[in-house]
Each structure stands twice: as C-alpha cells, then as structure tokens.
Amino acid sequence: MYKILEKKALGPGMWYMRIQAPLVARRAMPGQFIMFRISEEGERVPLTIADFDRQEGWVTIIFQEVGFSTKQLGRLEQGDHILDFAGPLGQPSVLDGFKKVLCIGGGVGIAPLYPQIKQLSQAGASVSVIIGARSKDYIILEEEIKGLSDSLYIATDDGSYGQKGFVTDILKDLITKQASKYDLVIAIGPLVMMKAVADFTRAFAIPTRVSLNPIMVDGTGMCGGCRVTVGGQTKYACVDGPEFDGHLVDFDEAMRRQGMYKQEERVDHFCRLTDQGGGSK
Ligand code: NAD
Ligand code: FES
User: How many domains does the chain fold into?
Assistant: First the structure.
C-alpha cells in the first residue's frame, strides 16, 4: 500500500499528491510514468511522474479528475493509501547534450514537463518554457518553473492571464519574429496541441519530442492497447515511449484511437455510480 504524504488542490479538479513509494522513487527518471489502482476492482490508470526524491523515497503525481478512477483518486486524502502504484514504467527522456531547449506544456501536460526542465537546468542547459491553459485557474507549477527556466511565457485561451491564445501562437512568435534557435522542442499536452507544435517545427527542422498517453491496460507491452504509429511502424507507448519524435507520430490515428472508447467509458462510469448508490444524475 502506498501512503499519500501530501495532497494539494492546484486548480479546478486538479490535484497534486506526494506518494510514499521508495522503490519507484529509487529508479524514477524524467519522462517515465506510473500506473495506479485504487482497489482490487479498480482499473489501472497511467500518470506521468511529476517529481521524485530518491533519498526521501517519494514520487509526486499531478492529475485532473476526468474519469471514474481519477475522481476516486481525487477523493482520497493525506494519510490514505493507494493499493497499487507500479513503476517507473516507460523509457526515460533523453536530455543529455542539449544546450538550448524549448519546453511547451498544455494544461495538465505541464506537470510531466517539470522533471525534464529540472534536469535540463541542473545540467546547465538554457531552457525556455511556454505554458498554456484554458484560463488562469488551470495554470500550474508557474513559480516552480520560473525558478528553473531562462524565460517563461504564458498563454491562456480566454486571455485571463498571460497572452491570449494558444501556446503555438507564442511558439510561432519566438521562431519567426524573434528568430530564436533551439536544439530541441519538447511538447506535452493534448494531442491536438502536440500535433500543431510538430507541424510547425517540422518546417524549421527543429527536432521535436512529444509525450503520448494513449489508453493503457497492462502497461507492459502485452495487450497492444497503447499502440501508436511512429514513422510507419507500430510502437507501444508503454514500453517504447511514452516519448516519440513528434515529426513521425501519426497524430490523426492517435486521435481516432483516443476517442474509440468514449461511449464505453460513459456507460462504465454510469454503472459504477449506480452500483455504488451514486444515483443516475
Ligand atoms: P487543454 O485542452 O485545456 O489545452 C491546454 C492548452 O493546449 C491550451 O490552453 C492551448 O494552449 C493548447 N492547445 C489546445 N488546443 C490547441 C490547438 N488546437 N492548437 C494549439 N494549441 C492548442 O488541456 P487539458 O484539458 O489540461 O488536457 C491536457 C492534455 O494533456 C490531456 O489530453 C492529457 O491527455 C494530456 N497529457 C499528456 C501527458 C503525457 O504524458 N503525454 C501527461 C499529462 C497530460
Ligand atoms: Fe498494453 Fe501498452 S498498455 S501494450
């Protein structure tokens, strides 16, 4: 059982949790993820690691309540326990040797960028960061990232904070108007954002890495649930990724697959609520 050492609200339905998990923390690297399961009957849900401390033996996760399991997780409090917290899973990010990196995070996708920004900054790289969210309340980790980056740009869809617009508007300004040069762009957020970033950087031949989080079942490369096409080849995000060359990812297929089980998820969510006497509203 994995104890919740700390819980904080970061925004509407967005939570930070610090979990006691010494074995996971000991081997965790930026870019990797864990799979949690709250109870014997629960589904296994992947979450990218947001931070870790090897000495103190904890790992942090940041998540948004979007489905049944993340809502259940959001109801747990400091001192409660999670049944399974398996990891670290997936391939670590390759960050060595980059001198000038632009990190782009959208919404809750800002969280998995944080350990990468931290490692890059500790290695002496110059790190610029663009973070974007639908409004001010959904911007997370601003202070933490500000302390590690050379420059931080913020966009909100509604203009309630930072520049009004998408992260890609700032990206386009940096590359075209300001002629900024980067060895690498790392983008993590909704598929549509990562696709827009990759489509733009492709024209400028800027290496671009994205992190995919498709539907996962076992997280070990056995079930095929998380398959994605990268450079015409089938890859499994849980073992070959979750990070891939953004210029080679078939985003249209990934978006189709992401929407495939929406109806089943709604039915399952409804059944579980009614099973628990949660009513039918
Ligand atoms: P969101 O829909 O609120 O979008 C966040 C930001 O992305 C927007 O503010 C905007 O700047 C940008 N964006 C959105 N649509 C865009 C478009 N068409 N063109 C350019 N930029 C666009 O984000 P959310 O609801 O917080 O969802 C976050 C997503 O990140 C989820 O889909 C989740 O699956 C994904 N995520 C991925 C990982 C990972 O490791 N790969 C981890 C966490 C979250
Ligand atoms: Fe089953 Fe990746 S989750 S193969």
Answer: 1
CB neighbour class for 201 (10 Å; exposed up to 12, middle 13-18, buried from 19): buried
Assign residue 73 the CATH number of its domain.
Answer: 2.40.30.10
pLDDT score of 272 more than 50: no
Show the ligand 1 pocket: residues with CB < 6 angstroms. Answer: 48, 106-109, 112, 132-134, 155, 157, 166-168, 188-190, 192-193, 196, 211-213, 242
Give the model's confidence band at 43: pLDDT under 50 very low, under 70 low, under 90 confident, else very high: confident
Q: Using 50, 70 and 90 to split pLDDT, how confident is the model at 218?
A: confident
Q: Which atom of ligand 2 is nearest to the CA of 46?
A: 3
Predicted confidence at residue 274, as pLDDT, reads 44
Name the β-bridge partners of 35: 46, 86
Distance, CA of 106 to CA of 87 (rounded, Å): 24
Of ligand 1's atoms, which has the minimum distance to the CA of residue 165?
11
d(CA 34, CA 37): 10
Q: In ligand 2, which atom is closest to the CA atom of 222? A: 4
Q: Is residue 164 part of a domain?
A: no
Report the alpha-carbon distance of residue 231 to residue 148 in Å, rounded. 33
Domain span holding position 39: 2-89
- Ligand having the closest approach to the CA of 255: 1
In a domain, 16, yes or no: yes
Residue 205 maps to a domain: no
Residue 32 lies in a domain: yes
Cα of 259 from ligand 1 centre, angstroms: 15
Q: What is the mean pLDDT of the chain?
A: 91
Q: How far is the CA of 67 from the centre of ligand 2 (A)?
A: 19
